Amino acid sequence: MKLCVFDFDSTLMDGETIDFLAAELGLGEKVAEITEMAMRGELDFFESLVTRVKLLEGLEVERVDAICHALPYMPGAKETIAQLKEKGYKVVVFSGGFRNATGYAKEVLGFYADFSNILHAKNGRLTGLVGGDMMFDFSKGDMLRRLQALLGITPENTVAVGDGANDRSMFAHAGTRIAFCAKEILKKEANVIIDQKDLTKVLEYVE
User: Fold this and answer.
1) SS3 for 62?
2) Does position 106 have pLDDT exceeding 90, yes or no?
3) Phi–psi pair at 56, nearest 5 degrees
4) Gap between the Cα atoms of 81 and 75, Å rounded
5) Residue 128 is inside which H or E element, if any?
6) Which one of 18, 25, 92, 96 is separated from 132 by 20 to 30 angstroms, measured CA to CA?
7) Is residue 76 a contact partner of residue 199, using CB atoms and an 8 Å limit?
8) Which long-range contacts (CB under 8 A, 24 or more apart) does 25-33 make?
9) What mean pLDDT is predicted for residues 109-136?
10) H or E stretch including 103?
11) Which residues are catalytic?
12) Domain total for the chain?
């Protein structure tokens, strides 16, 4: 058995979910700036996530879901996942983003499981609080090691695909480390670099 783990925002999806949500409140530019700094590794991921989600307080859950269901997927995302499954890979998603987006994408793109964060809501609106599987810089690596142990999969049979600083921890436990349209901080830890927005390029580097 083999495992392929994708990041979601700016990897399977063309953009950052939180930036799309913030734009609804007229805060797109402010949040995007924090996101960018976090993905370059200039800010602690947990602190940046909590700060950005706080700015979403009051947004209607109905709008959140509508935005998350209309996100633009990266060219080749669906085809690449289908091909990987044919090759015998378990395909999962680790996202520092939100279940509203990754849960829906799972049905559309066909990967097996999503591990992401939950936007807390009350009375139909976001409270500005967040919790979940992927809150910290180390979360993706920690979850990957647990999945490998559970499924009996070695790092040599693991592919990790991501774009930002919080993907470094999963790269540490993957034999094939693909930096996809990535920040320099992640490219330094990759053994495959793809700078074209075409996920089918991933298939050239997997057996």
Assistant:
1) helix
2) yes
3) -90, 0
4) 12
5) strand 125-132
6) 25
7) yes
8) 25/55, 25/56, 25/58, 25/59, 27/55, 30/55, 31/55
9) 97
10) helix 99-109
11) 7, 9
12) 1
